[in-house]
Amino acid sequence: MNKGILKILVCIAVLLTGCEDLIEPAIENNRQLDPSAYLPSDSRFPFGILLNGYNRIPTNSWSFNDVATDDAVSNDQNNGYLKMATGQWTANNNPASQWTNCFAGIQYLNIMLGEVNKVQWVTDPVANRLFTTRIKGEAYGLRALLMYHLLMTHAGKGTGGTMLGVPILLKPQTTSDNYNLPRASFDDCMKQIYLDLDSADVKLPLDYQNISLGQESLIPSKYGKVTLEQYNRAFGVTFSGLFTGRIAKAVRAQAALLAASPAFNNGNTNKWADAANYAANVLNLNGGLNAVTNNAASGLTWYSNTAELANIKDGANPPEILWRNNWGENRDLEQANFPPTLFGNGRINPTQNLVDAFPMLNGYPINNPNSEYNAADPYANRDPRLKMFILVNGAAAGVNNTTINTTANGTTNDALNKVATSTRTGYYLRKLLRQDVNLNPTSATNQRHYKPHIRYTEIALAYAEAANEAWGPNGMGSNTYSAYDIIRAVRRRAGVGTSNNDAYLESAKGNKETMRQLIRNERRLELCFEGFRFWDLRRWNAELTEPAKGVSIQNGVYTILPAVQDRVFRNYMKYGPIPYSEILKFSALEQNEGWN
């Protein structure tokens, strides 16, 4: 979100407290809704209600839920996802819960939708109508987004086997309302998400941009007769970073993929076709297949493209990013995840499982006879993404290109299990980290970072998955590219299979099941450490108990550690629980099957 919006947040905080309250609390310090005060001079307060919806977007920060999967472990024994993975996940102890957060956000958004028509945002009546329209669109879009996250984290089969979603709340809850509401069906929740996204799409511009004199024809006709000044005032570049029509289309694609997935779908291929078409609609706004191929230079390393990051403006997006939070200059990720010799805490340790998922440079999986994989030199001639995303033994890192030694008998604290902050798997995280950050206390430096909400690569992989299920590897439906085309572009961008026309992909494109596994693996690699793996395994009905493996390297010998950490999940844990406290309070709420 851009700096202007953050400044508004500060202003709201000052407005709500006042100087006297800093010394002695007021008798009643809760600001009440007061339509008589919704004047342009005080419109920051109702806008602050809307900002509560933005502040509760679950993807605002990194979850690193990979720690509860076969992709990573953590040396932080207090990590919530580590506790989940090792048998401590319960309905009253759920670090992944979004129930309170998302329903609180929906309450704020429903308040905003109830009050927005009463607010005079600006004195110009036409511009005021445009502001009202825009803010309604934002609220509908954010409500859909929060509902999507509620379904991802809490939808599941009730004790009777019915696929349930969550209660649908379309107006603010007051103290006199009935809070004891049943869960709506999963399908009804999806219908509400689509309705809200329809409302957002029709009210919002595709993107926020200023329209110049002489380009009045670019003003969307849906806004009626407005001047350039009025349009730019309500929908101009100032508001970049807020919810848009483009984002609404992307959220629709995300939600549709969830609904089409095996854990939530009874085999209806129409749902897969819908998911593919919705993803294609987003990609086509960015050049279709070229959304992958045209940003090859930045699509893989969007988090560390120095020049791109240095020049990024508030609200603007690099080519790979559809929506993101605001950039910040810090060293938090590096402090948490750099190896100890670089003054980091080495928190997230990729597993051998994930390392083995990267193919060879020629595109073959390492267990394929044609791969030419050498277990005695396991990192040679591998998919270039391996060393981009994972810090392996002998690789260089940090501002001084320090060689990192993760061997079992290494002499530094980077060695396997040397100290509390050492790697537990033989690997350290590299993805997301800027190697030009210096953590040395005598010369520490920060660098720019941002967190994507949605990347085009995510949407491309969603298309590939859905298109393959709907029409097979080479089918296109009404689109102009197939699942095969997307995966070929993704792998070529990474430099995989370029020397042999990606013979493995060519052999896979004739089989839907083989292509499914390849697509899932590409999603695993491209989106690793971005918060997808935990939920992907669940929506696929995939194996959840694969132990996290590591490697012990000593005197040049690589020994696989078969169970650095076990993964303790029951079958019913493919669906997250309804919070136990809510089940105790409200008899109408039905818990997901298996959870107490």
UniProtKB/TrEMBL annotation:
Coiled coil: none
Pfam families to which the protein is assigned, alphabetical: SusD-like_3, SusD_RagB
Domain called SusD-like N-terminal: residue spans: 63-210
Protein name, as recorded: Starch-binding associating with outer membrane
Claim: Membrane is one of the keywords in the record: yes
InterPro entries: SusD-like_N, SusD_RagB_dom, TPR-like_helical_dom_sf
Protein family per UniProt: Belongs to the SusD family.
Domain RagB/SusD, residue spans: 324-595
Keywords: Cell outer membrane, Membrane, Signal
GO cellular component, one term: cell outer membrane
Compartment(s) where it occurs, according to its Swiss-Prot or TrEMBL record: Cell outer membrane
Record Gene3D superfamilies: 1.25.40.390
